[in-house]
Amino acid sequence: MIPEVLVSREVAHRGLTELEIVEDMHARKARMAELGDAFVTLPGGMGTLEELFEA
């Protein structure tokens, strides 16, 4: 799952079995929460903490 703005800036791996391109990071996190059955948080930075609280 990748925001459409990053498809051109970064390498969107086209060889994946499934690649979802979403509108923005908020849509990405919402879609991942929708698809997930559970969440595991490992040590990280501020982005990790923000994603933990949003989940």
Structure notes:
This protein has helices at residues 4-9, 25-35, 46-54; strands at residues 2-3, 21-22. By secondary structure, the chain is mainly α. Strands 1-2 form a two-stranded parallel ribbon. The chain has one domain. The radius of gyration is 12 Å and the shape is globular.
Keyword list:
55 residues; mainly alpha; 3 helices; globular
Question: How would you sum up this structure in a few lines?
Answer:
The chain has 55 residues and is mainly alpha-helical.
Bin the strand percentage.
5-15%
What is the H/E string?
A: EHEHH
- Tell me the distance between the termini: 16 Å
Number of strands: 2
SSE topology:
Blueprint: E1 2-3, H1 4-9, E2 21-22, H2 25-35, H3 46-54
Parallel strand pairs: 1-2
